Amino acid sequence: MHDKHRQSPETSDSAREKKPAGNARFSNQSGKKSKTRSHEPKRPRKVTRDYLMNYATWYLERFAASRARLETLMRGKIRLSVAEHGTDPDEAVQWMNSVLSACEKAGFINDDAYAKGRARSLLRRGKALRVIAADLSSRGIASDQVDAALTELRAEADDAAYEEVRGTDPNIAAAAAYARRRRLGPWRRSEIREEKREKDMAALARQGFGYDTATRIINSEIEELEDLLSMIDGI
């Protein structure tokens, strides 16, 4: 990706006007106060294949995205261009598909890698596996790719685990990671821990963890959870 794409394609050439020299307060030689320029809403850009390619490149330089996510964004651009400029929608969709294919061929879009990387990141943040699966599905990742990402994630967590906890459900380790991140249960100050117990249990339940898992984490001591956390910290 080249530097020429680093400016958002949303900025039109007409918007790149030169700034007046010197202090703008004194640029009006007549001594009259300068008028405030009205800010009219920007017109949507007219979609072309080049515009869609520039937009895709600009976006992917900044954000990881699935093919479905990028397609959704480009379809939004197309709808606006059709309404504002009379762009042929069928031709625009052909341009979009061409751009998506080019991005995949270049390796800028890779749904398998995206799914595995996002699943790993969410587990580190203490998300339950079923929550991770739902997140990936909502981002347009195919069900077989979601299954493959979760299978690999389980294997990575097991490989990273200390020998004493290998074979443990990663959901339990994720619950411990979430409790640590939010300072729940054993990470609370001792004088308020019992008072906050039900609240902490409810917090884990809202994250998709079952009652038994939540009870195990909230009732444990930090030292008892260190082995479990190796499953998270090692991936």
UniProtKB/TrEMBL annotation:
<keyword id="KW-0963">Cytoplasm</keyword>
<feature type="compositionally biased region" description="Basic and acidic residues">
    <location>
        <begin position="1"/>
        <end position="20"/>
    </location>
</feature>
<dbReference type="InterPro" id="IPR003783">
    <property type="entry name" value="Regulatory_RecX"/>
</dbReference>
<feature type="compositionally biased region" description="Basic residues">
    <location>
        <begin position="32"/>
        <end position="46"/>
    </location>
</feature>
<dbReference type="InterPro" id="IPR053924">
    <property type="entry name" value="RecX_HTH_2nd"/>
</dbReference>
<protein>
    <recommendedName>
        <fullName>Regulatory protein RecX</fullName>
    </recommendedName>
</protein>
<comment type="similarity">
    <text>Belongs to the RecX family.</text>
</comment>
<feature type="domain" description="RecX second three-helical">
    <location>
        <begin position="110"/>
        <end position="150"/>
    </location>
</feature>
<feature type="region of interest" description="Disordered">
    <location>
        <begin position="1"/>
        <end position="47"/>
    </location>
</feature>
<dbReference type="InterPro" id="IPR036388">
    <property type="entry name" value="WH-like_DNA-bd_sf"/>
</dbReference>
<dbReference type="Pfam" id="PF02631">
    <property type="entry name" value="RecX_HTH2"/>
</dbReference>
